[in-house]
Design the sequence.
């Protein structure tokens, strides 16, 4: 019989055994300076991160949702690069800054690439970051939202600096990943 992972030490988790938390990988993409690292840092310090030693697991958060624990690895993908393949990825987070049209256009290119060229059917979240900089906004919410829905993506506006909507985003990513894997389990 497969052994159940012991609670308490994530180092002892065996992903193959029943009872162990599922493990998902999320790529965080977007132009340089849009706040990818800031978002990942907020995810790590999120109250949803139930990992006992958050600093010990670089880029990995442990999230409890519906009484089930999952480990989510957040990979900060190199700036200005497109991922070459869709394997070992459960979801994408495409970030742009609402203060910078260039980063929005780059995000739109990334979405087109992921859906049309890579033919990915993974969950994709479009994240409009830096909403605290209201007066510097140059990317309209409605336009960005339309782009996201055109590519069948969820759209979220965040401020990594103020930790605004970052927790919802983390939980949203996990629910979408689970929904894709178990569409019947609504
Ligand atoms: P990355 O290159 O995409 O990883 O971007 P960083 O996370 O390094 O952030 C780039 C700069 O934007 C840093 O100076 C951050 O402090 C700042 N930044 C990130 N998120 C926000 C935000 O939500 N609001 C504001 N005002 N600044 C932000």
Sequence:
């Amino acid at each position: 019989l497969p052994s159940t992972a012991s609670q308490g030490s994530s180092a002892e988790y065996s992903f193959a055994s029943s009872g162990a938390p599922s493990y998902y990988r999320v790529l965080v993409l977007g132009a340089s300076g849009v706040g990818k690292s800031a978002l990942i840092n907020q995810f790590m310090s999120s109250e949803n991160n139930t990992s006992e030693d958050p600093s010990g697991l670089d880029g990995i958060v442990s999230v409890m949702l519906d009484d089930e624990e999952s480990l989510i690895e957040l990979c900060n993908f190199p700036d200005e690069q497109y991922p070459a393949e869709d394997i070992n990825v459960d979801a994408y987070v495409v970030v742009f800054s609402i203060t910078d049209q260039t980063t929005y256009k780059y995000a739109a290119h990334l979405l087109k690439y992921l859906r049309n060229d890579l033919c990915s059917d993974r969950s994709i979240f479009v994240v409009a970051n830096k909403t605290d900089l209201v007066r510097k906004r140059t990317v309209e919410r409605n336009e960005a939202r339309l782009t996201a829905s055109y590519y069948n993506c969820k759209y979220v506006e965040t401020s990594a600096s103020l930790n605004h909507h970052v927790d919802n985003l983390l939980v949203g990513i996990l629910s979408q990943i689970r929904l894709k894997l178990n569409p019947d389990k609504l």
